[in-house]
């Protein structure tokens, strides 16, 4: 029976920014090419080496994350006047409870709320 090798799993964020997961530890490659420990687990030298090796091997460089709707739009969202989240705006609702937001989108008869939820939830 063969012994399993200790493998390190490295994944880049889906948005292709310069953020990486390495065995459930989040690292960020900054504009100066320095690897920064962000969160999760413990910052270990062997994990840093593995991420840096991955970056060199795959010719990765700094790429900023695209801004989200929450960061770009200065828009006044509609307040919900009913239910367990009454008096919250649609944006606050999506940030608080996506499952309820999806349910509300499917069951709401107010077109303005429905359109805002569609945009915030990125429903096609």
How does this structure look, described?
- Helix content is 36%, strand content 14%.
- The protein has 124 residues and is an alpha+beta fold.
- It has helices at residues 45-57, 69-72, 90-96, 98-107, 111-121; strands at residues 10-12, 19-22, 25-29, 35-39.
- The N and C termini lie far apart (50 Å).
- Helix 3 (90-96) packs across helix 4 and helix 4 (98-107) packs across helix 5 (111-121).
- The chain has a four-stranded antiparallel β-sheet with strand order 1-2-3-4, covered by helices on one side.
Briefly characterize the structure.
With 124 residues, the protein is of the alpha+beta class.
User: What is the overall shape?
Assistant: elongated
* SSE arrangement, N to C: EEEEHHHHH
Helix content: 25-40%
- The beta-strand count equals 4
Overall pLDDT score: 84
Poorly predicted runs are none
Rg: 21 Å
Domain module count: 2
Given helix and strand content, the structural type is: alpha+beta
Sheet having the most strands: 4 strands, antiparallel
What portion of residues belong to β-strands?
5-15%
For the terminal residues, how far apart are their CA atoms? Answer: 50 Å
What spatial order of strands do you see in the largest sheet? 1-2-3-4
Number of helices: 5
């Amino acid at each position: 029976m063969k012994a399993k090798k200790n493998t390190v799993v490295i994944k880049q964020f889906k948005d292709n920014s310069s953020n990486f997961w390495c065995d459930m530890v989040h690292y960020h490659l900054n504009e100066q090419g320095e690897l920064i420990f962000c969160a999760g687990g413990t910052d270990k030298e062997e994990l840093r080496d593995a991420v840096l090796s991955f970056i060199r091997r795959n010719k990765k460089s700094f790429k900023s994350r695209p801004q989200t709707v929450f960061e770009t739009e200065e828009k006044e969202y509609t307040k919900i006047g009913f239910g367990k989240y009454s008096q919250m705006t649609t944006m606050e609702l999506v940030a608080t409870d996506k499952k309820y937001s999806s349910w509300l989108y499917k069951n709401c008869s107010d077109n303005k709320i429905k359109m805002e939820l569609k945009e915030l939830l990125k429903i096609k």
